[in-house]
Design a protein that fits this description.
Blueprint: E1 19-25, E2 28-35, H1 43-46, H2 55-60, H3 67-82, H4 90-119, H5 124-128, H6 134-155, E3 164-165, E4 168-169, H7 175-179, H8 182-200, E5 214-217, E6 228-231, E7 236-237, H9 242-245, E8 246-249, E9 258-261, H10 272-278, H11 285-294, H12 306-326, E10 345-353, E11 356-364, E12 370-376, H13 378-393, H14 402-414, H15 420-423, E13 429-433
Helix pairs in contact: 3-4, 4-6, 4-12, 6-8, 8-11, 8-12, 11-12
Length: about 425
């Protein structure tokens, strides 16, 4: 028997830490484990006993890349629990703030984290040293900067914004500040279209998976803050029924929980590829036009082509941001008044984080204190699916040199843009033959 080890102490270009161990016996893969060793962070536990208004700021600290996602899911869930109804104008402003996060997150992933895999570079730093690729890096950085600035204008700062609260905003964005961003957003829209065209020219591994795609769906818009949970197998659920159909379980080799269907035990996929496949017709006109131009036609089942899906969502984010700013009027007031007396309540909600569906559920007592919290991040929902992808993908790369096989496995994992800290929650890769 032969023995072979592949080790990557830390997977580069993902958020968080963990390991992958692959065991092969007589050229057959016998075990694959994503060993997520990042320490648990216990957010659900230490939210208990805190005021409901503290939750939005606390949960934003779960992630520095997608804090808005945690704020939005929390705010909506807590508004359901408390009976608060945000004033007119808040809905549009929340959507605009969320688009800012999608822009900075997707631009970061497409150009800084995943692009090097497709152009033969180890990082965006070495890409920037290549005269032919430097314009790509500069474009990605400029797009990310615009997204960060949009978050700052609305949220008060780009990392862990401070303006969001249950019931609305502590302060609504000024119309003049948003309109001053129009030239940058118009540039960004064209840059996003060019991103999709560039992504369509890349060479993708041949690897299609029969996924169950899961995302929000809304009859009038591309899903973001509101809607129902749908899947490619026919699910169509109210958000309140999420936990009847999706459950988490602990696995011995991971500090992150793994989600699966409650009824079938099967895995599923959330994120850009799921959203674009399920909600393609809801994309904005510019996104639909460039999708048709490059021949992108759902269903797309290749996880590596999530790069193109993120590009299409960048077009969506820039195009709708311009529309929202054109119609924006400062909400008066920007924050709903708290009810005079709390009754114990429960609220649950999900929004679409850049990486996929993000579900929150809270219980509140008569004093407005949290007695229970449940948070299901998108990466935790995808981790089982990542492992199953690797089970199917690894046999096809075993004949490659170790370095190349390792890179291919990393590239597949990076296609999910995992936020391991959110999921706690990558990557040491060890291939053992024996």
């Amino acid at each position: 028997m032969t023995e072979k080890h592949i080790t990557v102490d830390y997977l580069a270009r993902v958020e968080g830490e963990g390991a992958l161990r692959v065991k092969v016996v007589d050229d057959q893969v016998t075990d694959i484990q994503l060993n997520i060793f990042e320490p648990p962070r216990f957010f659900e536990a230490f939210l208990r006993g805190r005021s409901y208004q503290e939750v939005v700021d606390i949960t934003s600290r779960i992630c520095g890349i997608c804090p808005i996602a945690y704020q939005m899911s929390a705010a909506h869930a807590l508004e359901k629990a408390t009976g608060l109804t945000p004033p007119p104008g808040v809905r549009a402003l929340r959507r605009l703030l969320y688009w800012g996060e999608w822009i900075e997150s997707h631009a970061l992933h497409v150009y800084m984290l995943h692009a090097p895999d497709f152009v033969g570079h180890e990082s965006a730093i070495t890409m920037a040293g290549d005269p032919a690729l430097r314009p790509l890096v500069e474009r990605g950085l400029q797009m990310k900067k615009i997204g960060n600035h949009l978050m700052t204008v609305i949220g008060g700062r780009e990392i862990h914004p401070v303006s969001v609260c249950v019931g609305g905003f502590y302060r609504g964005a000024r119309q003049a500040d948003l309109r001053a961003m129009i030239p940058d957003l118009e540039w960004g829209l064209q840059a996003a279209i060019d991103t999709v065209r560039w992504a369509a020219t890349l060479s993708y591994p041949q690897f299609d998976i029969d996924y169950e795609f899961v995302s929000l769906s809304h009859p009038d818009e591309y899903p973001l803050n509101e809607g129902r949970v749908i899947s490619s197998t026919g699910l169509d659920l109210a958000l309140e029924d999420y936990e009847k159909y999706f459950v988490e379980e602990h696995v011995a080799h991971s500090n992150a929980l793994h989600s699966h269907r409650a009824d079938t035990g099967s895995s599923y996929l959330v994120g850009p590829l799921a959203r674009v496949n399920l909600c393609f017709d809801q994309l904005a006109p510019a996104a639909l036009a460039v999708a048709r131009e490059i021949g992108f036609k759902p269903p797309i089942k290749n996880p590596f082509k999530s790069l193109i899906a993120r590009g299409l969502e960048l077009v969506q984010a820039f195009e709708e941001s311009l529309q929202l700013i054109a119609a924006y009027e400062e909400p008066q007031p920007s924050r709903a008044a708290a009810p005079a007396k709390f009754q114990p309540g429960e609220g649950m909600h999900a929004t679409e984080a850049p990486r996929g569906l993000l579900y929150h559920r809270y219980q509140i007592d008569e004093d407005g204190l949290i007695t229970f919290a449940k948070i299901v991040p998108p990466t935790a929902q995808n981790l089982r699916r990542v492992e199953l992808d690797l089970w199917q993908y690894v046999p096809g790369v075993l004949s490659l040199p170790l370095e190349e096989a390792t890179l291919r496995c990393e590239q597949l994992v990076r296609s999910y843009d995992p936020c391991i800290s959110c999921a706690t929650h990558f990557l040491k890769l060890e291939l053992e033959r024996g």
